[in-house]
Structures are given as C-alpha cells and as structure tokens.
Amino acid sequence: MDGRILSDPDGAVCYFCLGEEADDEGSPLVRDCSCRGDSAGFAHLSCLTTYAEQKCKQADERDMSEFTEPWEICNNCKQNFQGQLAIDLASSCVSFAEATYGHHDNSKWDKLKVIHSLRMQIVALAIHGNEVDKTERMMLISNMLSMVNQTKNDLNMSRWIHMPKASEEYKYYKMLCGNYEAYAHLQFATSLDLTEGIYATQEDENVAIGHLKKARAIYNLFGMKNEAQHMDATIVLMFTTSKQATDASIATSSMLQNLKIEYEQSLKTHGINSEVTIHTGLHYAHMLECEHHLEAKRLFTKVATASRQVHGPEHKTTLESNELLEKCKERFVWVLPEKKLF
User: Fold this and answer.
1) How many angstroms separate the CA atoms of 12 and 227, rounded?
2) Which residues contact 91 (CB under 8 A, 6 or more apart)?
3) pLDDT tens, 165-206?
4) CB of 180 within 8 A of CB of 115?
5) Which contiguous run of DSSP H or E holds residue 280?
6) Per DSSP, what are the bridge partners of residue 185?
7) Which of 93, 105, 152, 251 sits a CA distance of 20 to 30 A from 297?
8) Do the beta carbons of residue 181 and residue 120 sit within 8 Å?
9) 8 Å CB contact between 59 and 67
10) Domain residue spans in the chain?
11) What are phi and psi of 155, to 5 degrees?
C-alpha cells in the first residue's frame, strides 16, 4: 500500500498545517500507518519531517530509540509508518542527523545518532523496499561499517573492551559494536542475491557466512549469548548437504526456543496488541511453520486477529498475517491410483 495520495480525499487536511493542497514542494498529502477513516492521519511529508526534527532535538542524548521514534511512528495512531512513506521519512532522518550531528567535533553520542539513523534507513529498505532499493541498502550498510570503524579510531577505543563493564566506556563500546557493527554484518549477509532462500553462487554463500561469523564473534565478545546462538543457527541453516541435517535440526530447535522466550517476554511486557509483540509473534510463527504446523496455525490466527484490531484490515502486517495463515491452512491430499503400478 503506497502512502502517497495522488488526489486528496474529500475533507482531508494535514493535521499539522491544516492545509488541503500540496505543500510548497508540490508533495501531496500522505498517510500510510494505522490511522483509519476518510480524513484522519493525513499530513505533508515536509510537515512530518519538521515535526520529527523538533522532537529529535528534545530527545535524551543517549536514547537512540527516542531519537528515531518520531520518524518511525505516527503521532496519531502510535503505530509504525509503512511503505514508501517509511522509506522517505528514514531518508529524511539520515539527512537531518548527518547535517546536525555528523561533524567531527560532535560528541560520541551524536556520532551514534548518525549511525542509528543509517540503521533505521537500512531496516526501512529491507522491509518496504524492492529490488531497485537493494543497491542503496548495500551502500548504506557499507557506510555504517565505515562509520563504526571511524568512530573507534577517533575515540581510540582499542582498550575500552578491557574497562569495567559498569563503565560508560564499556557500555558505549558494547552498544557501538553489538547494536551496529554486528547488525551491519548480519544485514550484509542477508542483502546478497537470494533465490528461494538459496545464495546465487558459492562465493556469495561464503561471503555471507563470513559476515555472520564476524557478527557472532562480536556477540560472543560482549557475552550476548542469545544473539550469538542466533548467528550459529543461521550459519548452520545455510548449509544444504545431508551431513549437516542433524546440526541444522539442532540449530533450528535452539532458534525456536529463543524466539519463544522472546515472544513470551514481549507478551508479558508489552501485551498482545503491541506492535513489538505482533511482529515477534509473526516471526516466531513463520519459523514454527515447517515442523510445528498446528502450533504455527494457532499463533498466526492470534497475530492476525491482533493486527486487525490494532492496524485495521488493509494494513501491510494484517495482510501478511492473513496470507501466512491461509497458507498454513492448506492441506495436501495424496490419492493413490486405481491401477497397480507394478
């Protein structure tokens, strides 16, 4: 569903400037979130950007989630933006962060804001982009890795890993490496050419596994056990030879257990109708589908119901949940031929 509205619906106005027409740049009203009704939630992209910039400047210096929240979440329905609107806002966030916090003499926390905005754009392109956007995504991943390495050099961080774990230096180093460097390696691995989940060439597979191993090493360095186990499982699942079948089964079981814990924790912390819980449940159900069909079907039903209540029937997450649920309901019936084959 594209958030751009080519002709404004009757009665729709920008809820920031109250304008009915296109803005000064010629951009029409947009809406691609969970707002419903004929007129609610429409805004100009330029107004959304101005609002987000103002909120960013009020955010806690060290809270990266608070920094990007106004670029990711609708101020009306409190749900994530979707489609092209999510990509456009992520791009605007990167431009704002680079112009405001991307100077050499900015604080180390300002440097993280620029890196975090890059991560936000990578996620937006991964979720809402298409094949044309893949090149840009790869470039952003490379930029993020370069910025991480530059930050390490600028701050002379080589010894920060040996500092007390309660120190600000250690916490910052863990955040930089665990949240951004390892994440970039993971995204690089998943950005290579895939056909039905299989890498196009053996070289691509080797490169992908190399990046995943780098991510795993970073997670192990900081004692991030769940993340490291997830990398182990992903690496093993890339092998298709029969001798890896047992290891793949063990890895899948480990991954499922981690996803189950993550989903149950999200249920307890955020509730069933939380955006976080819905997406965590969708991922968990998708992993369950191969070997735990009935359990997956029940979870898909729960997630689809929650998404319909929170986002509405036409939202991307609802449509995806319903599609996976219908797929899970399919039954294959084998009919033996009447005549004997032998």
Assistant:
1) 45
2) 121
3) 999 999 999 999 999 999 999 999 888 765 445 556 778 888
4) yes
5) helix 275-288
6) none
7) 251
8) no
9) yes
10) 130-238, 259-325
11) -95, 0
Rounded CA-CA distance 303/317 in Å is 9
**pLDDT tens readout for residues 111-154:** 999 999 999 999 999 889 887 788 899 999 999 999 999 999 99
CA separation for the pair 66, 266 (Å, rounded): 19
Output the six-digit token pair for 334: 């084998």
CA nearest neighbour of 1 among 321, 317, 322: 317
Helix (H) or strand (E) holding 44: strand 43-44
Contact 141, 149 (CB under 8 A): no
Helix residue ranges, H only, 238-342:
245-270, 275-288, 293-311, 316-329
Q: What is the DSSP string of 81-139?
A: --HHHHHHHHHHHHHHHHHHH-STTS-HHHHHHHHHHHHHHHHHHHHH--GGGHHHHHH
Q: What is the helix (H) or strand (E) element at residue 198, kind and residue range?
A: strand 198-199
| β 198-199/194-195 pair status | antiparallel
pLDDT of residue 336: 53
Phi, psi of 225 (to 5 degrees): -65, -45
Give the model confidence (pLDDT) of 46-64 as tens digits: 999 999 999 998 988 889 9
pTM over 0.85: no
* Cβ neighbours around 309 below 10 Å, total: 13
The Cα 234–Cα 252 span in angstroms is 8
Residue 78's region, left for phi above 0, alpha for psi from -120 to 50, else beta, is left
